[in-house]
């Protein structure tokens, strides 16, 4: 199957238009909630000079609030790509696109569309935080900017890769047991949202706690210099751990996605 960039681009453009229409409600519903979280955090830190306020600023914010904010921003798009891959199999437009470009091009088109939408949403959030910091000069805003600039990019990539791969595997498994497309779509939506939330929170908590992990402290005493890589500084923890931990996972997920698409194209679509 030859990759067709032009037709994949057409699929991506169509997916972006459809997903923007679908996400209009979700975006308008989530922004007040995220804004309220920012406001509450700002008030607590601004007027809480006690130890509780300091602990809130240094612990709760980077470990809980930033992952929660990211989850709220990307859930609509993760759910949409999952639902569209399953539901569009029955649409006439999807059947035409599959006939012309194949299932691989359709999945890649939707993948690129969702990636652009999510990155655009996070970028707009980042710009808003910079604008707010210009007038408020709040440490909470700087902490969020620092968090987004680093690990949220990795979390976002992992979430999208896992979501697409998980959706395809689940679709194949469920299609062999269920003929009801509505039930299949609902099951996929619920499962993908749960999986994505787990990944985002897990990676965020791993990042925030790795410097205090006893395993890495023990290894640093055995192997000279490894402490400087893993627990010596925040920058080293961020990027070296990203290469070690997430590089392996991305390779595995990419290979899994490749073989899942190939299996689906050859063994499933060829029978219909």
TrEMBL record:
Transmembrane intervals: 24-45, 66-86, 111-132, 153-176, 213-233, 239-261
Superkingdom of the organism of origin: Bacteria
Residues in the signal sequence: none
Keywords annotated in UniProt: Membrane, Transmembrane, Transmembrane helix
Protein name: ABC transporter permease
Source species: Periweissella cryptocerci
Lineage: Bacteria, Bacillati, Bacillota, Bacilli, Lactobacillales
């Amino acid at each position: 199957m030859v990759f067709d960039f032009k037709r994949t681009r057409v699929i991506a453009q169509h997916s972006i238009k459809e997903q923007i229409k679908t996400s209009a409600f979700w975006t308008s519903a989530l922004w007040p909630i995220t804004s309220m979280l920012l406001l509450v955090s700002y008030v607590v830190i601004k007027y809480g000079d006690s130890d509780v306020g300091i602990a809130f600023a240094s612990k709760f914010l980077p470990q809980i609030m930033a992952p929660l904010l990211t989850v709220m921003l990307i859930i609509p798009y993760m759910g949409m790509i999952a639902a569209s891959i399953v539901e569009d199999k029955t649409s006439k437009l999807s059947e035409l696109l599959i006939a012309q470009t194949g299932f691989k091009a359709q999945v890649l088109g939707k993948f690129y569309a969702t990636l652009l939408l999510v990155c655009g949403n996070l970028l707009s959030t980042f710009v808003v935080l910079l604008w707010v910091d210009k007038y408020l000069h709040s440490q909470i805003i700087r902490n969020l900017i620092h968090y987004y600039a680093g690990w949220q990019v990795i979390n976002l990539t992992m979430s999208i890769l896992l979501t697409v791969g998980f959706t395809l595997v689940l679709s194949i498994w469920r299609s062999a047991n269920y003929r009801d497309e509505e039930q299949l779509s609902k099951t996929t939506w619920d499962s993908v949202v749960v999986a994505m939330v787990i990944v985002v929170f897990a990676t965020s908590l791993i990042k925030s706690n790795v410097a205090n992990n006893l395993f890495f402290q023990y290894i640093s005493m055995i192997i000279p210099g490894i402490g400087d890589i893993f627990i010596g500084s925040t920058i080293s923890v961020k990027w070296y751990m990203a290469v070690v931990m997430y590089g392996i996972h991305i390779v595995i997920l990419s290979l899994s996605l490749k073989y899942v698409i190939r299996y689906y194209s050859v063994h499933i679509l060829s029978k219909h």
